[in-house]
Design brief:
The chain is mainly alpha-helical. About 50% of the residues lie in helices and about 5% in strands. It contains 19 helices and six strands. A three-stranded antiparallel beta sheet has the order 1-2-3. The chain has a three-stranded antiparallel beta sheet with strand order 4-5-6. The relative contact order is 0.13. The protein binds s-citryldethia Coenzyme A. S-citryldethia Coenzyme A binds near residues 45, 264, 304, 362 and 363.
Amino acid sequence: MANTAELTVDGKSYSFPTLEGTEHEKAFDISNLRDQTGYVTLDRGYKNTGATKSAITFLDGEQGILQYRGYAIEDLAAKASFLEVAYLLIYGELPTKDQYSQFETSIRRHTLVNEDMRKIFDGFPVKAHPMGVLASLVSAMSAFYSDLEGAEGDKTDLHIIRLLAKLPTIATWSYKRSQGHPINYPKNSLDYIPNFLNMMFSLPVEDYKIDPVVVEALNVLLILHADHEQNCSTSTVRLVGSSQANIYSSISAGISALWGPLHGGANQEVIEMLEDIKADGGDVAKYVDMAKNAKTTGFRLFGFGHRVYKNFDPRAKIIKKAADDVLSKLGINDPVLEIAKGLEEAALHDDYFVSRKLYPNVDFYSGIIYRALGIPTNMFTVMFAIGRLPGWIAQWKEMREQKEPIGRPRQIYTGPTLREFVSLENR
Ligand code: SDX
């Protein structure tokens, strides 16, 4: 029997259907709430509000569970390649050998970017933050690849290939120019991650040797960042796409949302915070106290806390272990890693954090690995965007296939009530 939720307001009773997902999450369906009751709901930050039904990613914040299309993140991080996971998220199944070969070959053959896009790129100041450049150039792709405008169905797959193929190429441009180095072109002879590394770090004056330890570490990091259900940037992609805006504009909006320090920008903030703590003598207790008195100090422990995870972020667990592995394999001793571990230890034994269920999140340790791989701090959130791209694409595609209505939230107006206009000379 279908359940209902009973609501009594203004002396009248109303029934609303409830629904349950495949992982037993429950919801009241309030699609007719305002028509029936005249009321809307208010839920700042959408902490309790589901925007959609989705079959892509499941996470359980209490248990610390994360699954992409039913596969445990731990399995995928240990056994899959990033492009296999991208295919899984976007098309719903792990690819067969033939499907993977076709997908991977198409991506390999679309890594080159229209040379005229370099003119837009050259207009940016050298110090421009790579996230601002990335968001602008991805939006510009809608001008260079407009031949597919409005062409749905199989044409969408070409949009998808172009985004997955070209984002790493564009992402490396900012870094190369910031170093005063010539931009590198992609090579069809290289796999996805080695191609990115070569574009990032190779120089015309000497051969660049791809380190398999670095490739494997990046593969794990990109998989762990690939999707995360209805987070801020994904919800942005879906909302923009719900107006029938093209996929490039929708993804560009997602990149801008991810840039914020409360979201994907936190990985850069974490390293800068850890560096500050190190420069200040490494006294983690002092910074834990500052975080507890945030209202007076204004200090927040970046990389801690999460809207959904009220237990350990499963990605943080994997990244923390990977940080130890990668740094030891690369023979790097980074004192900032020890400071991070000390901060985690202090916070997880402090009632302020325990009572608020504030645990390390995906951003807490990721920057330590990026840094060990030679990736500069201001490129950390770009790495997050490269990882999250398949998830954004999958969610955009699902939103379109589900024919979701245009997103348009309601509000409660608290401004002035109707008043007479007073002309300027009388004011
Ligand atoms: C990501 O949604 C996703 O899935 C995002 C993400 C993804 O994969 O897409 O997982 C990626 O964005 C991870 C989060 C990265 N952001 C940070 O690390 C920034 C620091 N963390 C926070 O600002 C905060 O925890 C959020 C933004 C992540 C979550 O914020 P909420 O859910 O709105 O919680 P809140 O700000 O209301 O905090 C609840 C309480 C408050 O204290 P009280 O008002 O109850 O006294 O916890 C405190 C906050 O002050 N708090 C912190 C804290 N985070 C929350 N106190 C100190 N340090 C922190 N980091």
